[in-house]
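Hi Prof. W.,

I finally got the ADP-dependent (S)-NAD(P)H-hydrate dehydratase prediction working! I wasn't sure whether to trim anything, so I left the full sequence exactly as given:
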Amino acid sequence: MKSAIQPPAWKALLPWPGPEAHKHARGRLGVVCGPPNRTGAARLAARAGLRVGAGVVTLLCPPASAPIVAPAVEAVMVHPFEGPQALVEASQAMNAVVIGPAAGLDQATIENVRALARTKAALVVDADALSIFEGRSQDLFDLLDTQDVLTPHEGEFQRLFPGLLDAGREAAALRAARTAGCIVVLKGRETLIAGPDGRIHSNDNGSPWLATAGTGDVLAGIIGGLIAQGMASVDAATAAAWIHAEAARGFGPGLIAEDLPDRLPAVLSGLYPG
Ligand SMILES: NC(=O)C1=CN([C@@H]2O[C@H](COP(=O)(O)OP(=O)(O)OC[C@H]3O[C@@H](n4cnc5c(N)ncnc54)[C@H](OP(=O)(O)O)[C@@H]3O)[C@@H](O)[C@H]2O)[C@@H](O)CC1
Ligand SMILES: Nc1ncnc2c1ncn2[C@@H]1O[C@H](COP(=O)(O)OP(=O)(O)O)[C@@H](O)[C@H]1O
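And this is what came out:
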């Protein structure tokens, strides 16, 4: 049975800093950056993760990308890594890592997902890190555990789960979550959040203004930022879908992805019990 998500369903689970908070206690989020000419998507995700409250957010960059990224961020940190083992080491202390936004459709992205699966960090797998597993999706599923999250749009979903959408979006999302053994966020006008336990949530407070490049990267960052603060992945994905859509609804015409992270304080203030 599909449950519609309204703020009260997950509002009590949102993480807020207590008086003793310090930045490391508020959660560490990593975002894997792509090649030097495609760093914007990861930067959008990182900024969103920081805005939603993660205490420390780090862009994990291939060495050639680091000098491009460093002057384009402020509070977000930059950590260059060379090769999968260095990514494991850089990610050991992370609570969550986002990989995929403009990561590159190449072997390096596969190796990086494999490396991250060896860490304790929960993974948010998006965009290129989904598409690169087309035709070999079981290789991806074998790396995941129940707290990991896949965030496909319908094109990416079709690449990982060919033909499944023919059963309808809801049945497809549920079957996908069971098959992958993790949370599946099937994005679109209505976004579905399905778990391997057979539960599914629907988010339909979206806005057509979200249909613009980079908004999915922001959603991945919000999910990662909430998981990093200790939310269970299914609750984080459910809350993130609502918060992301609400940020867009409040902005309206002219929205571009860059606007979304900076709308988060207004949305969060409306949810803050303090
Ligand atoms: N600032 C940056 O650097 C940004 C970088 N970005 C990066 O760009 C890369 C490409 O990402 P992408 O999502 O545009 O393309 P991709 O997944 O390769 O395939 C697109 C094809 O899939 C299909 N399709 C079907 N349903 C669909 C749906 N609901 N939504 C969308 N597509 C749907 C559709 O096929 P059609 O229906 O046209 O036959 C369409 O032609 C990726 O690395 C991403 O991270 C972006 O994040 C933006 C900001
Ligand atoms: N017509 C729409 N109504 C509501 N939400 C939409 C609509 N179109 C797209 N979205 C939302 O916008 C985001 C687009 O993500 P995605 O397709 O991954 O874009 P990108 O890869 O460019 O970041 C998703 O969260 C999706 O649910």
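DSSP finds twelve helices and ten strands in the chain. Does that look reasonable to you?

Thanks,
D.
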